[in-house]
Specification:
Layout: E1 2-9, E2 15-16, E3 32-39, H1 41-49, E4 67-68, H2 73-79, E5 83-84, E6 88-93, H3 99-112, E7 117-121, H4 126-136, E8 144-147, H5 152-162, E9 166-170, H6 187-204, E10 207-212, H7 223-229, E11 232-237, E12 244-252, E13 260-266, E14 269-272, H8 276-280, E15 291-298, E16 301-313, E17 321-324, H9 328-342, E18 349-355, H10 367-379, E19 387-389, E20 392-393, E21 399-400, H11 405-414, E22 419-423, H12 424-428, E23 439-443, H13 446-454
Parallel strand pairs: 6-10, 6-11, 7-8, 7-9, 9-10, 17-18, 19-22, 22-23
Antiparallel strand pairs: 1-2, 1-3, 4-5, 11-12, 12-13, 13-14, 15-16, 16-18, 20-21
Helix pairs in contact: 9-10, 10-13
């Protein structure tokens, strides 16, 4: 075996042949650590010798039924319809957000379906895991095995002896291979251990869940390394001290990458939220300016969220634009559109934007709602409580069409909203439903929408 020494950034995984004070990839300081990398050339030669012969693509046999439901509707939706055999799923999130809780709930339901599950707890003892399982009520699992182990050779032996259908690694940062002379949690250890486990999962058809910690920037340690190795990347979002959690797909080779599941953290674990729209709008006030409701779409699921804007006179020499749950660069662009196209005086104002409920919006259909929330807060005009708005805003303040318009309209009508402002081009489309019990109002630009909403 050959040994090579290099330097790796412990935040992003960038490698260099010499020590660097500042990482050129993630711009972090003093994050490079010297690591000894062992090149296992003999193992590589064996893998090459065992390669199968090339076959024609049309002759490859696929198994379409090797997918099993977890039993939690929100998780099954995010995974793309269930868990695929041999799938490698990485679950990330802040400490205490609920990664281990959700994973234990999932594997308990899988074991009740007759699947053999091996839960490797590297950070907690089996007694601690038993205490959590009692609180979650998952002791009915008949084929759920648990062990506290962190050494890679011992884990390989356990897998070969038990031959589980599902394997959980909690967490990958504490697993280490003695053949690699770097500390547990380093980029080299994380990369090699994850790659080894992935090869085993693909060769045996075993479903693999890997729990990963996040860095101070909110990224899974060694993100590029892990995200390229695994099939699915799931993030659990939400404030640690609030009750709601959002499970979001960042990568999925077996389904959509835009799905999202909503959960509520309770004393008995994470519970599904069947109607997130009602939760996000439950405490909305009817007499406050700067409040706008928008139907957004995450994957195939529409739901309504409230966007709140606040505009105040700046007390410092430089104005501040702060956004919670929305892209700050996109907010700055929309503020510039309001200043230039609508002649609103925002140049000396601090602007704050908040998406209620801890949701992070990526849908461009929220542009119009964000612009109207800022304008409403500046002019101190209250927008009708039973009105929703949607539309993408261009640099000329024009309101552009959005996708899946019928799903959004139906969701708004279901919750009792009476008016819906939408792009005029969407309203002209033949497939837009006009009898959902909600008044549809088409607008061409932001000024028209503002005038008709606040008159």
């Amino acid at each position: 075996m050959k040994t090579k020494t290099n330097y790796a950034c412990q935040d992003c995984g960038h490698q260099s042949s010499r020590w660097l004070g500042k990482c050129p990839e993630c711009q972090s300081w003093n994050s490079f650590v010297e690591e000894a990398i062992i090149e296992k050339t003999h193992r590589q030669q064996q893998i090459v010798e065992r390669q199968d012969k090339a076959v024609l693509l049309r002759d490859v046999q696929t198994a379409t039924d090797e997918r099993f439901r977890v039993g939690i509707k929100e998780v099954d939706r995010v995974l793309g319809g269930g868990l695929a055999a041999g799938a490698v799923t990485l679950i990330g999130g802040d400490p205490g957000i609920g990664k281990s809780t959700l994973t234990l709930q999932m594997v308990s339901l899988l074991s009740q379906q007759g699947l053999k599950v091996l839960y490797i707890s590297g950070e907690e003892s089996i007694q601690q895991t038993k205490m959590r399982s009692q609180r979650l009520g998952v002791l009915k699992a008949d084929s759920l095995y648990i062990i506290n182990q962190v050494e890679m050779p011992a884990i390989r032996n356990l897998i070969s002896q038990l031959k589980p259908d599902v394997l959980v690694i909690d967490s990958i940062q504490v697993i280490f291979d003695p053949e690699i002379s770097s500390s547990p949690g380093s980029v080299s250890q994380v990369r090699e251990c994850a790659a080894t486990l992935t090869q085993i999962a693909k060769a045996t058809g075993m479903a693999l869940f890997i729990i990963g910690h996040v860095t101070k920037e909110g990224m899974i340690a060694g993100p590029k390394v892990l995200e390229h190795i695994v099939d699915t990347v799931l993030y659990i979002e939400g404030e640690r001290y609030t009750s709601y959690r959002i499970l979001r797909t960042m990568k999925n080779r077996f389904g959509s990458t835009h799905e999202m599941g909503v959960f509520e953290m309770t004393g008995e674990g994470l519970k599904e939220v069947d109607n997130p729209s009602e939760i996000f709008l439950s405490e909305r006030s009817a007499k406050i300016s700067g409040s706008v409701v928008v139907p957004i779409l995450e994957g195939t699921r529409p739901f309504l969220v409230e966007i709140q804007g606040l505009v105040t006179r700046s007390s410092f020499g430089m104005v501040r634009h702060k956004a919670q749950g929305y892209d700050a660069n996109r907010l700055a662009l929309l503020v510039a559109v309001l200043e230039k196209r609508l002649d609103l005086n925002l140049q000396d104002k601090d602007i704050f934007l908040n998406v209620v409920g801890g949701v992070r919006i990526m849908d461009p259909a929220a542009d119009l709602a964000v612009g109207l929330a800022v304008a409403s807060a500046l002019l101190d005009r209250v927008i009708d409580f039973k009105t929703v708005v949607m539309g993408e805003v261009g640099l000329g303040s024009e309101v552009r069409s959005v996708s899946q318009i019928n799903l959004r309209i139906n969701e708004a009508a279901k919750l009792g909203f009476k008016k819906c402002f939408l792009p005029k081009n969407n309203l002209k489309a033949q497939k837009v439903i006009k009898d959902a019990g909600i008044e549809l109002i088409g607008v061409e630009n932001v000024r028209e929408a503002l005038d008709r909403l606040t008159k």
